[in-house]
């Protein structure tokens, strides 16, 4: 079992930056591939980024602007977001115990953190 808690969301102007954190419980954190997803009002949850032992993967919409990383010693995953756009506004969720772009393949989810980008 893994419990995930996101933090770091907030309100930022377009062009600004935010860093999201996902703190995980459990000593098995290092075993899990992890990802970030987001969900805007009225839209389906969509893939943002994932990190595995082989590297990182990003949605085309965030490539070059967002960076995913993890600190296994601290049981924490991060999402550094730069050059934010209004269309990045969404609730951001971290996920573990899955892989790929489909959120249905992930077993563990955080409660989400709101990111709002004003124009």
Please tally the β strands and state the result.
11
| Percentage of residues in DSSP E strands | over 45%
| Category from helices, strands and their pairing | mainly beta
Summarize the helix and strand pattern as letters. EEEEEEEEEEE
CA distance, first residue to last residue: 40 Å
Query: How confident overall, as mean pLDDT?
Result: 94
Please tell me what the overall shape is: globular
Instruction: Specify Rg, calculated over alpha carbons.
Output: 13 Å
Fraction of residues in helix: under 10%
Q: Spans of 5+ residues with little confidence (pLDDT < 50)?
A: none
**Mind describing the biggest β-sheet?**
7 strands, mixed
Number of separate helices: 0
Report on the structure:
The protein has 119 residues and is an all-beta fold. The protein is built from no helices and eleven strands. The strands form two sheets. Strands 2, 4, 5, 6, 9, 10 and 11 form a seven-stranded mixed sheet that branches. It has a four-stranded antiparallel sheet with strand order 1-3-8-7, with no helix packed on it. Strand 5 (46-52) and strand 6 form a beta hairpin.
What is shown here, in short?
With 119 residues, this protein is an all-beta fold.
Give the helix/strand layout.
Layout (H helix, E strand, L loop, with lengths): L3 E4 L2 E4 L4 E7 L9 E6 L6 E7 L2 E4 L7 E6 L4 E6 L8 E7 L11 E2 L3 E6 L1
Parallel strand pairs: 2-11
Antiparallel strand pairs: 1-3, 3-8, 4-5, 4-9, 5-6, 7-8, 9-10, 9-11
Spell out the key features of this protein.
single chain; 119 residues; mainly beta; globular
């Amino acid at each position: 079992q893994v419990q995930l808690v996101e933090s770091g969301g907030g309100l930022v102007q377009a062009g600004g930056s935010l860093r999201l954190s996902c703190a995980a419980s459990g000593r098995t954190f290092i075993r899990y591939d992890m990802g970030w997803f987001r969900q805007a009002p009225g839209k389906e949850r969509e893939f943002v980024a994932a990190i595995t032992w082989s590297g990182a993967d990003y949605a085309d919409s965030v490539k070059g602007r967002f960076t995913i990383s993890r600190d296994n010693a601290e049981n924490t995953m991060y999402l550094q977001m730069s050059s934010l756009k209004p269309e990045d506004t969404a609730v951001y969720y971290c996920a573990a115990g899955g892989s790929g772009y489909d959120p249905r393949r992930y077993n563990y989810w955080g409660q989400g953190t709101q990111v709002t980008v004003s124009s």
